[in-house]
Amino acid sequence: MTHLKLFPLSLVSFPTKIVPLHIFEERYKSLILDCVNNQSEFGIIYKNDSGLAKFGCSMKVLDVVKKYSDGRMDVITKGINIFKLNSQLLDGQLLIGQVKYNESDIDINPDKFEILKDKYLKIMLMLGITSNLDGHLKKVISFELLEGISLPSEFELMLISTGSESNRLKILNEIFDKILKNQFPIPDASHFES
Hints:
There is one protein chain. The protein is α+β, with helices and mostly antiparallel strands and about 190 residues long. It folds into 2 domains: about 1-100, Archaeosine Trna-guanine Transglycosylase, Chain: A, domain 4 (Roll), CATH 2.30.130; about 110-180. The protein is built from 5 helices and 6 strands, in the order ββαββββαααα. The protein has helices spanning about 25-40, 110-125, 135, 155-160, 165-180; strands spanning about 1-10, 20-25, 40-50, 50-65, 75-90, 95-100. Strands 1-3-4-5-6 form a 5-stranded mixed β-barrel. A hairpin with a 5-residue loop joins strand 4 and strand 5. It is globular and about 50 Å long. The N and C termini lie far apart (about 35 Å). About 25% of the residues are buried. Residues about 190-194 have low confidence and may be disordered.
């Protein structure tokens, strides 16, 4: 088990996800500066009125885009590893989680992944996303197929709590089929930039 400083938010992160953050609370300013100075990670964990999710994702600070005179920051972070939250405690005002990193089985059937990637590309085209198609063709894991697609948090939580890549692909296949058959609302891709 590992201790990880947590940043509870109303969003789900996962490996490869790019998350821009505007940091304004003192406790998170310290957290981000510590991560930058020590090249360490922190955890984003989904939080709603019911409390914290059981799973989250460790994050790496890729860039401090802007620093304001009052200490606020705009940063770009990237999801690294999924973890399960076993317990938590407050250290001052910062939440520390005792976490266990998931060791996902990379049990991918290449043919099935290619079929799913084809569905993903059709969804990108449905959404009008035509730039960087070569980059989309190079995707190799399930989480990369979420780029540009905003799924409801409960679906993203289901994906990060699934320990098998093969099972994640099955879930995504069902979701993508529903999107392509217009049985599921087309996700908002306005935040997406290739």
